[in-house]
Amino acid sequence: MSANPPLVAVPADVRDFEKYRWHASPDTYLKALVRVAGAVPVIVPAMIGEIDLAAVLDRVDGVLTTGSASNVHPERYGVEPSPSFEPFDRDRDALTDALIGQSLARGLPLLAICRGHQELNVAFGGTLQTEIQELDGRMDHRAITHEDQRERYATRHDVAVTPGGLLASVVGAGPIRVNSLHRQAIDRLGDGLAVEATAPDGTIEAVSVRGAKSFALGLQWHPEFWAESDAPSAAIFEAFGAACRARRDAGR
To answer: Most buried among 70, 181, 184, 237, by the most CB within 10 A?
Structure first.
């Protein structure tokens, strides 16, 4: 890693484990930031009412919102909660909603993956659909059951890349093969977002923020898992890292 690497804020998930409450982030995202983006991750605890988030954003050069086992609470986009939407993490919801809004207002680069992609859509007034594999004409995007994570996160279908968009400028014209593992997806696209890629069944797999001051990309799939070996995955993290360095060099 080069000297003076950019700092990237990563929101924590909240988990109860061994009688303690943990604020943590999945290892794969942190490794991709360090090894491919050339950045230092800064895990932000999901304590939105107790920490000065502005002070955090004053010190970082970008924001990465990760995937998670939990889902955005449906009340945030006007849908009645049901067991099919569980589990939830309301503390993370509050943190990421603030992180997304404040980082974009400041012009900080933003990379939103899986749950983060869905959070981005909700932040812009969009909605989500759960159990999409049960809808007519839709593919089963869920991860397979396998003890080997490399098999679970293997690339399984192509996405069509929107010509002339942000994603196309990073990975090329496409199509590209992705490891899109989810049972929720964007239903109504949020105002101010542009579709950057779609699955063969029409599922929105990537979005960007129209008129964003910097790099702002949401992806339903998991480029972090293969960022060290898959060319499109690496290109995404390299582009995000470059945007964070440009922000650092321009002065926070």
So the answer is: 237
What is the DSSP pairing of strand 7-11 with strand 62-65? Answer: parallel
pLDDT digits (tens, 9 = 90+) for 18-76: 788 888 889 999 999 999 999 999 999 999 989 999 999 999 999 999 987 778 888 98
Residue spans of the domains in the chain: they are 7-250
Predicted model pTM: 0.92
The H-or-E segment that residue 209 falls in is strand 204-209
DSSP 40: E
- As given in the structure block, the two tokens for residue 31 are 């490794």
Residue closest to 91 by CA, chosen among 138, 47, 142: 47
Helix %, strand %, coil % of the chain (to 5)? 35, 25, 45
Task: Say how far apart CA 193 and CA 216 lie, in whole Å.
Answer: 10
Q: Which CATH number fits domain 7-250: 3.30.390.80, 3.40.50.720, 3.40.50.880, 1.10.1330.10?
A: 3.40.50.880
Q: In this structure, what is the dihedral angle of CA atoms 20, 23, 27, 28, given to the nearest 10 degrees? A: 140
Residues annotated as catalytic (active site), given as ranges: 114, 222, 224
